[in-house]
Amino acid sequence: MQINCIVIDDELPAIEQMEEYILRVPFLKLLRSFDNGIEPINFLQSNAVDVIFLDIEMEGFTGLQLIKTLRHPPKIILTTAYDQYAIKAFDLNVSDYLLKPISFERFMQSIDKIFDLFAKTKPTNTQEAQYKRDYFFVKTEFRMQRVDFNDILYIEGMKEYLRIHTTIEKIMTLQNFKSLEEVLPADNFIRVHKSYMVAINKIKSVEKNRISIAEEIIPVSDTYKDSFLMVLKKA
Questions:
Q1: Which residues make beta-bridge pairs with 217?
Q2: Which of 19, 16, 41 is nearest to 30 (CA)?
Q3: In terms of CB atoms within 10 Å, which end of the chain has fewer, N or C?
């Protein structure tokens, strides 16, 4: 699935930041950016736009005025340095309200919401397979880092932290197993111990209560053993 979007903001640094964020997300396609609220009106009439990243405070013609001109508006994510418009904005049925400066983490929270909306409603082209995300982002140190599902070997619990062991590196993140279980594909990732989750397609062998992955040995606890063996039989 591809989501077409445009950016409308009268500040060049804000446009550039939003363009950079959009380019990081494979299923987002940036059609065009505008530095005013007038030009996009004609563009929206002749182009299939799914999402507008729209600044509110623009000279001459504000973002809120633009929204009111659209008979069938696409999804709208407001981007603004001012929080006093929040109630008015949601009265106009916007999808999200991002306060500047906008972090990539907050941007991705908004995009995940938009993706879920389109996954339920956007029809797929017969020549285009529906997009399925094969990655997620985790917060590590002072940045958001992308982790591809297929790179993960296993995940190790370390008190408040998780250490994600991949084919490339080890990533520490302040999360818990429950939060990862919500984003990882259930058909390939399984808990085998209170401190370990493994990628089934990376298992070399299983002997008694031990799993061999890469050059590491992962324990299987009695609590998870039966469910783990059941999944292996189906794999």
A1: 212
A2: 19
A3: C
Instruction: Please report the beta strands in the chain, taking only residues with DSSP state E, as ranges in sequence order.
Output: 3-8, 28-34, 51-55, 75-80, 96-99, 135-140, 143-148, 152-158, 161-166, 170-173, 189-193, 196-199, 203-207, 210-213, 216-219
Task: Give the predicted TM-score (pTM) of the model.
Answer: 0.54
Say how far residue 169 (Cα) sits from the centre of its chain: 21
Structure tokens at 229: 């063996």
Express the helix, strand and coil content of the chain in percent, nearest 5 each: 30, 35, 35
Q: Which domains does the chain have, with CATH numbers?
A: 3-121 (3.40.50.2300), 140-234 (2.40.50.1020)
Asked if residue 101 has a cis previous peptide bond (ω within 30° of 0), the answer is yes
pLDDT for residue 87 is more than 70: no
Looking at residue 113, its pLDDT comes to: 85
What pLDDT digit, counting tens, does each position of 155-211 carry? 999 988 999 999 999 999 988 888 888 788 888 999 999 999 999 999 999 998 999
Tokens of 162: 């998780």
Q: Looking at 3-12, 13-22, 108-117, 150-159, which range is the least confident one?
A: 108-117
Measured distance CA(222)–CA(228) in Å, rounded: 10
